[in-house]
Amino acid sequence: MCRWAAYIGQPIFLEELVTRPGHSLIAQSQHATECKTETNGDGFGLAWYDAKAEPGLYRDVYPAWSDTNLAALAAQVRARAFLAHVRASTGAATSRNNCHPFVVGRSSFMHNGQIGGFDRFRKRADMAIPEALYGERKGGTDSEVLFLLALGHGLDANPIPAMARAIGEMEGLSRHHGAPPHMRVSAAFSDGQTLYALRYSSDTICPSLYYRWSERRQGWAVVSEPLEVDEPGWQALPPGHVARFHGEKVEIEAFQPAVTARAA
């Protein structure tokens, strides 16, 4: 399982979530407290939005805690929205192309969780990616397939319904050809203007996800684990829900995957 942190609001330096807090994302890469793998050392990545509509992207295979370039970048780059991820592989190789976040055009996406038995239906999943998007398939993870399927279902125009269809399709493939747990997901995705966070599981074990508004930063932090021990204001997103963060507002609604014919 992986750990991640996302932000949207007034521009801040990436270090305010990634490196500086007592339980920062870097700290969680070594000592996560709310997942079955304490260490998340199979690579890391950042996607950030600043002056351009398309996000910048930096990923590498080194453990996040040992990469001085990451610390330097986080201390110097200021962004109005960003996604940051530290990876613990559930089977796919440790490579730069398998590191999150994934970016296509203005859209960015990162995922913590698993899709049960993916190796058994990898070919079927790849074949479900629309032809126009298959060239964006760079790595071998189930997470990248999920993102490309969502793009194919209209993520840019209707993010929540598109993600519901993509998750429904992948969960259906797992039920027909894979193994339980069929779907466990906490995910964040953004176009740089709005940040979405999703928490869902096909069983009773759901990856953790918290969010908090900061008056000081004038922005939302959305994380796998709170960034400071006993810091007030963190709220857990309930399982089976999706949150939309825009400006000072958060809108939360129930989330249910959509069943698709291709899942069989």
Kindly report the name of the CATH homologous superfamily.
Answer: Aminohydrolase, N-terminal nucleophile (Ntn) domain
CATH topology: Glutamine Phosphoribosylpyrophosphate, subunit 1, domain 1
Query: How would the global form be characterised?
Result: globular
Beta-strand residue percentage: 25-35%
Architecture, according to CATH? 4-Layer Sandwich
Quote the distance from N terminus to C terminus. Answer: 27 Å
Structural class: alpha+beta
Using the coordinates above, name the CATH class. Alpha Beta
Instruction: Give the uncertain stretches in residue-range form.
Output: none
Give a count of the beta strands, DSSP E runs of length 2 or more. 13
Could you explain how this protein is built, in words?
- The protein is an alpha+beta fold and 264 residues long.
- It has one domain (3-263): 4-Layer Sandwich (Glutamine Phosphoribosylpyrophosphate, subunit 1, domain 1), CATH 3.60.20.10.
- The protein is built from six helices and 13 strands.
- The protein has helices at 15-18, 25-31, 68-76, 122-128, 142-152, 159-177; strands spanning 3-13, 44-49, 56-60, 78-86, 102-104, 107-114, 184-190, 195-201, 210-214, 219-223, 235-236, 241-246, 249-254.
- The strands form two sheets. Strands 3-2-4-1-10-9-11 form a seven-stranded antiparallel sheet.
- The longest helix is centred in the middle third of the chain and has 19 residues, at 159-177.
- The chain is globular, with a radius of gyration of 17 Å.
- It starts with a strand and ends in a 10-residue tail after the last strand.
- The model has no long low-confidence stretch (mean pLDDT 92).
